[in-house]
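User: Here's a chain of 123 residues. Predict its fold as tokens.
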Amino acid sequence: MPESMFDRFRRSAEITADTWRDPQHDLDAIRPATAEERAEIERFLIARGIRHFIDAEALAMLNTSSAREALLAAFREGNGDIRAAIAHLAPDLVGAEERVRELVQRVETCDVYQGLSLTLEQI
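Assistant: Prediction complete.
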């Protein structure tokens, strides 16, 4: 039996000694996934939490109400790197005033490891 798109995606989501430096989700597994597989991918990502840019990227690609809610919560509660990723990937998710306020806060606190490059790009 062929591997499901969910299994393929989940396998790509494992960060190993070989992939920790440049982790990648198999976004190509989302595009042809069935509605059920997309729902499984979404549940998997939301359950484990948004830990990396790639998690936000996959949820933004799914673009469901639950994915948007998870992204908004992570934008409001996550570290600078996660907030920068969400502001980059889903800028319309948050109102302009809140986005600017968060950006100013991030400028004051970000560093090379916490969203500096995305922060500079958004400025």
